[in-house]
Structure formats: structure tokens, C-alpha cells
């Protein structure tokens, strides 16, 4: 159970490669590694720089192409999503609003769509709703490498930030309430309605109505900040997520 919690395993089978001397994760999505490199030609399967993994042409939904080097110097959101997934479509609508506000504010921000659709037609239909760029659907190898790089185990998921400082920032747009100007950064406390709660151990403080939520947040906030700061100093993820839930 300690290992399941430490590596936040939420589904099986899962295969995670670690550095035996430190216990740190080398590659979170070993299943994709074995599928893509069955002969071990890329062993020991350590992480590669984002610029190397993403290198190649990117698409806009009007058919225009651009080189991945255009992303340099920007905060980049890598968005793993699929049209067949209802939570993905809901998140996309929220993400489009946040993206447009951030761009209007003059921030250097781009989102890269990595499709998990089941056909190119579905990809094109879904991508037509998005104002950002995408990895071509036909480039399955590059899409797979990006999944491997960030240990993606399901959709929707995104990694946000120039240095990808939040390993799984699927909640960032909801945490920001559509009003943050970017870059997205993690908060120690958020509203439980904004996120799925299956990522690991959680502390949820329920309140009778929304009028009590502010007092509840003031109670939990310093506790959350203290615990998160303690583990951040050790370069580890906090073992607990904190939420306040109204009606």
C-alpha cells in the first residue's frame, strides 16, 4: 500500500521505472515504453527534454503548419484529450476561455494538443474547436513519446508551465477560475468540485453552504501550506491533497 500511494497508482496494470538508489521515478508509463521499444534500444528509458520529444511540425486547425521551435520562450500547456471522453469536452470549453484571456493579456502562452482520439476524423472534428496547436494525428510515435514523458495514464490531463513545474495540472484552469493571467502554478487548497478525487489521499472539509466556505478555507489553508512546503523542501510531492466542499 505504501508503494501504491507513493507512486500514485490509480489503475492496473501499471509499470513504473525508478532509480533504485534514490527511489525517484525515471519513467512513469512503462507500459508505453515496452510497447514502443520492445527491444530496449532506448534503454534505460530516462526522460528526454521536452524540446527533443516534441521536435517536428505542429498543426493549427486551419491546416497551417509551424515548427515546434515556435514554442520556445513560452509557457506551454501540453493537453492530452479525446473527443470521445465527456470530461475532456467539458474541460476543453473551460480551457479555451482561460487560453483566450491569457493570450489577450499579452502573455507568452501556448497549448499543445496531444490527441487520444480513435480516428483522424474524430481528431479533426475535436481540434476544430481549439484555438491552439496540435501534434499531427498521424504522428503516433511523437504522441506516444509525449504520453511517456509525462506518465499520462488517462484523459483529460495536461502539463502546464515552461519548466512543467506541475506534474499533472489538469486542475489548473479550474483552480485559476479562468481569471489567472499565467503562468499556472499549484495552489495548496482548492474547491473539490473542480477536480476528480482519485489521484491519491485527500482531506476534504465539507461545509453546510457556500457562505461558510471562506472561513473553512482560512482554517485549512495554513495547514495545507505547511505540509506542502515541508515536502517541497525535500523535492517530494505532498502525500495529501486539500479541498473545501460546499453544497
From TrEMBL:
GO terms for cellular component: nucleus. CDD domains: TryX_like_TryX_NRX. GO terms for molecular function: thioredoxin-disulfide reductase (NADPH) activity. SUPFAM superfamilies: Thioredoxin-like. It is an enzyme of class 1 (oxidoreductase). It catalyses: [protein]-dithiol + NADP(+) = [protein]-disulfide + NADPH + H(+); [protein]-dithiol + NAD(+) = [protein]-disulfide + NADH + H(+). Its EC number is 1.8.1.8. Transmembrane segments: none annotated. Residues 44-176 form the Thioredoxin domain. InterPro entries: Thioredoxin-like_fold (IPR012336), Thioredoxin-like_sf (IPR036249), Thioredoxin_domain (IPR013766), TryX_NRX_thioredoxin_dom (IPR045870). GO terms for biological process: negative regulation of protein ubiquitination; negative regulation of Wnt signaling pathway. Belongs to the nucleoredoxin family. This is Nucleoredoxin.
Amino acid at each position: 500500500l505504501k508503494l501504491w500511494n507513493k507512486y500514485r497508482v490509480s489503475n492496473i496494470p501499471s509499470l513504473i521505472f525508478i532509480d533504485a538508489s534514490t527511489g525517484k521515478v525515471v519513467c512513469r508509463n512503462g507500459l508505453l515504453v515496452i510497447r514502443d521499444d520492445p527491444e530496449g534500444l532506448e534503454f534505460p528509458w530516462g526522460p528526454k527534454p521536452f524540446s527533443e520529444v516534441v521536435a517536428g511540425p505542429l498543426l493549427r486547425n486551419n491546416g497551417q503548419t509551424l515548427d515546434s521551435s515556435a514554442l520556445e520562450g513560452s509557457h506551454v500547456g501540453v493537453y492530452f484529450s479525446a473527443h470521445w471522453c465527456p470530461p475532456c469536452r467539458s474541460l476543453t470549453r473551460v480551457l479555451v476561455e482561460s487560453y483566450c484571456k491569457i493570450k489577450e493579456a499579452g502573455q507568452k502562452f501556448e497549448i499543445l494538443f496531444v490527441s487520444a482520439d480513435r480516428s483522424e476524423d474524430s481528431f479533426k472534428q475535436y481540434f476544430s474547436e481549439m484555438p491552439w496547436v496540435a501534434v499531427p494525428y498521424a504522428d503516433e510515435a511523437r504522441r506516444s513519446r509525449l504520453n511517456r514523458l509525462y506518465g499520462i495514464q488517462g484523459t483529460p490531463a495536461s502539463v502546464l508551465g515552461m519548466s512543467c513545474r506541475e506534474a499533472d495540472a489538469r486542475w489548473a484552469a479550474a483552480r485559476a477560475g479562468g481569471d489567472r493571467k499565467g503562468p499556472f502554478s499549484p495552489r495548496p487548497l482548492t474547491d473539490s468540485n473542480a477536480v476528480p478525487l482519485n489521484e491519491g489521499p485527500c482531506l476534504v472539509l465539507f461545509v453546510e453552504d457556500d457562505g461558510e466556505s471562506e472561513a473553512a478555507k482560512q482554517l485549512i489553508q495554513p495547514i495545507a501550506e505547511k505540509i506542502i512546503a515541508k515536502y517541497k523542501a525535500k523535492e517530494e510531492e505532498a502525500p495529501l491533497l486539500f479541498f473545501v466542499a460546499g453544497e
